[in-house]
Structure to design on (449 residues):
């Protein structure tokens, strides 16, 4: 090891740790996500974090944007080009065909939760390693499945305690009706394109739908009055969109028609949606979104297969929860044991084992210099019940059980310790984990997992 200690190590830029102060909340909303998906027949899929670069490159016509700038791509020792996944949809479709799920009853409903990677400029709520909760329903074209995914993602955001979230909805048609819409967009932007940004000038030829979501001041004014995709839908696309809207209405799921909500890649079709939360400055932040990608399977080289899904940005949802004051404190370990005599550590290990067997989470204060120091440490750790094994207790095969809330204690026989802990704390709940309650008023404290 070098002698110099001047270079302190930190996490890589855009990567961050989740410490226990945050993981309580993360674990909670992950459990909720999983339970809601499973309730609707979605089953967990776990795909590799590393995939052949080709998997992500095939779907991306405009390689300069995503593949070269935004992906972590490298050659492995066998000379293969691999990439850290920037999203999980392509992986899910690959797994669906690789694993023969296309021969199972359709649609195949999958859910996932995990890290994705993008080499992007880090900012609040945007990391280079970020988490997504997503589902994919592969193998069914019916608009009812679109509604199912919208309802699922919306319910999850509600369960996270978020309020004021709006559902933005659009239909971007399909390969039948989109060419005509593309031409209409070009006609609209053609008179202004020379004054628009370099990205937009490039998109004018390659990807005119993206002209609608540029946020530069040089370009945004020209988006006013641009033709809307829903006015160009072919009959099947129009019928699909109408069915989605009617079902959302019937289910009392409010939405806002947003003609500027588009996707840049050709394999996206028909239903497109996003959930937006207003931040403190009133700006709208997308928490996640989804829609149909009926063209993706074919682009990846498989048989044409309709599919719909969503991906929610977990980091952004957590940030929105923090901004709205939704909190969940880490769960304290309620029972602590203090071995406070020569040779008491072994006894503490055994006693802790018995209590854990009975369902309690038990911490042991090892290495305290005195009983007093041990008590201070247990108290700081949130102890509600402290068990002391000191010289007198060891001698008489007893344990002192202290009720920290009442401030009282009893010395009981070794065999009666469990009864005494039960008396002080009540019987352990499942995993000693009381159902968490969001601290924000009005938020839901449900038991769904
Ligand atoms: Zn622009
Ligand atoms: Zn169409």
């Amino acid at each position: 090891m070098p002698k110099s200690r001047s270079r302190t190590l930190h996490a890589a830029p855009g990567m961050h740790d989740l410490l226990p102060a945050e993981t309580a909340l993360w674990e909670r909303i992950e459990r909720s996500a999983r339970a809601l998906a499973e309730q609707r027949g979605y089953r967990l899929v776990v795909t590799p974090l590393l995939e052949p670069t080709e998997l992500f490159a095939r779907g991306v016509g405009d390689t300069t944007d995503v593949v070269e700038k935004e992906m972590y791509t490298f050659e492995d020792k066998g000379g293969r080009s691999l990439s850290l996944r920037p999203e999980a949809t392509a992986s899910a479709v690959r797994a669906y065909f690789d694993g023969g799920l296309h021969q199972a009853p359709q649609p195949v409903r999958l859910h996932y939760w995990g890290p994705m990677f993008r080499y992007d400029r880090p900012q609040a709520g945007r990391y280079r390693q970020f988490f997504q909760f997503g589902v994919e329903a592969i193998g069914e074209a019916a608009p009812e499945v679109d509604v199912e995914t919208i309802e699922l993602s919306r319910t999850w955001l509600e369960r996270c305690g978020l309020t004021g979230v709006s559902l933005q909805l659009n239909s971007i048609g399909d390969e039948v009706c989109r060419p005509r819409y593309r031409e209409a967009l070009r006609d609209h932007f053609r008179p202004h394109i020379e004054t628009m940004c370099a990205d937009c000038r490039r998109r004018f030829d390659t990807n005119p739908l993206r002209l609608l979501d540029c946020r530069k001041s040089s370009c945004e004014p020209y988006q006013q009055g641009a033709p809307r995709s829903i006015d160009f839908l072919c009959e099947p696309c129009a019928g699909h969109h109408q069915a989605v809207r009617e079902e959302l209405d019937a289910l009392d799921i409010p939405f806002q028609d947003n003609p500027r909500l588009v996707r840049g890649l050709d394999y996206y079709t028909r239903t497109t949606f996003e959930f937006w939360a207003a931040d403190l400055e009133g700006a709208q932040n997308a928490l996640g979104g989804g829609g149909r990608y009926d063209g993706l399977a074919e682009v990846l080289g498989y048989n044409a297969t309709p599919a719909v899904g969503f991906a929610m940005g977990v980091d952004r949802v957590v940030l929105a929860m923090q901004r709205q004051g939704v909190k969940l404190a880490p769960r304290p370990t309620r029972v602590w044991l203090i071995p406070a005599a020569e040779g008491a550590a072994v006894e503490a290990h055994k006693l802790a084992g018995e209590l854990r067997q009975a369902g309690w989470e038990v911490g042991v204060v090892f290495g305290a210099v005195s009983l007093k120091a041990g008590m201070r440490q247990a108290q700081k750790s949130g102890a509600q019940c402290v068990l002391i094994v000191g010289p007198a207790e060891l001698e008489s095969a007893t344990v002192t059980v202290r009720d920290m809330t009442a401030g009282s204690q009893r010395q009981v026989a070794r065999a009666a310790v469990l009864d005494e802990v039960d008396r002080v704390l009540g019987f352990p709940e499942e995993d000693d984990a009381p159902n968490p309650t969001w601290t924000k008023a009005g938020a839901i404290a449900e038991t769904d997992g």
Observations:
- The longest strand covers residues 108-117.
- The chain has two domains: 20-177+233-323, 335-425.
- The two ends are 47 Å apart (CA to CA).
- The domain at 335-425 is CATH 3.40.50.800 (Rossmann fold).
